[in-house]
Amino acid sequence: MAPLLVLVSGRGHAVDMEPEPEEVLSQQATDGALVRAARLGDVQAFAVIVDRHGPAMYRYAVRLLHHDADAVEVVQESFISAWKNLHTFQGRSNLRTWLFRLVSRRSADLQRTRRPIPISDDLLSTMTPSAHDDPLQQAMDDELLQALRRALAELPLHQRASWLLREVEAMSYDEIATALALPVGSVRGHLHRARKALAMRMATWR
Question: How would you label 186-198 residue by residue, b for 16+ Cβ within 10 Å and e otherwise?
C-alpha cells in the first residue's frame, strides 16, 4: 500500500504521513500521548497515528468494499474526520476501534450509493496457503478462493464487517460493537449468521 496523503482540513495542510528518520522515536509514543499532542495541533503526532493504524484500516476497507480506490477514499475521509473530531474522542474505547468505526460508517455510506462490486481474488489470496510447487493444489486453492469470494460478497454489510473484524482483525465483541455502533448482542447475531452462511456455502470444501 502506498503511503497515505491526508489533507488535514481546517488547518490548510496537505501532509505526507510517512515520518522522517528523525521522527522515529515518536513511533514509540502511546496512542493516548499521540492523541493529546494531535489535539494541540501537532501534525507529526497525527502522522504517527496514520502510519500506525492506516494499513489495518485500509485492509479492512478494501475487503469490505472490494475496491481499492473506494477503500483509499474511505480511509482518507476517515482520517480527515478523525483530525477534525479528535476532541470528541474520550478514550472509552481504544483509538484503533474508534478509527475503525469511522471507516465502517463511511463504507456503509458509500455502499448505499453504489452497486456492489465483486471481491477481487487478490484480496483473498492471503487467506489460503500458497501451493506454488503443486499445480493440482494451486488449482484447488484458486477454486476455493472463488467460492470464498462469492460467499463473502453475498453477505449483508454488517455480517461481512463483523466477520472481517473478528476473523481478520481479531477484535473482541465489545470492540466490534463499538466499531459498528451496534449492541454486542447484535454483533454476536451478525457474526453467528455470517459464520453459518459461510459454512453452508463452503460445505463442499470441508
Answer: ebbebbebbeebb
pLDDT digits (tens, 9 = 90+) for 80-127: 999 999 999 988 889 999 999 999 999 998 877 765 444 444 444 544
Q: What pTM was estimated for this model as a whole?
A: 0.72
Fold of 1-117: Rna Polymerase Sigma Factor; Chain: A (1.10.1740)
User: What gap in Å lies between CA 17 and CA 14, rounded to an integer?
Assistant: 9
Closest alpha carbon to 104 in 69, 61, 68: 61
Nine-digit cell string for 188 = 454476536
pLDDT digits (tens, 9 = 90+) for 128-151: 444 455 554 555 456 777 777 778
All structural domains of the chain with their residue ranges:
1-117
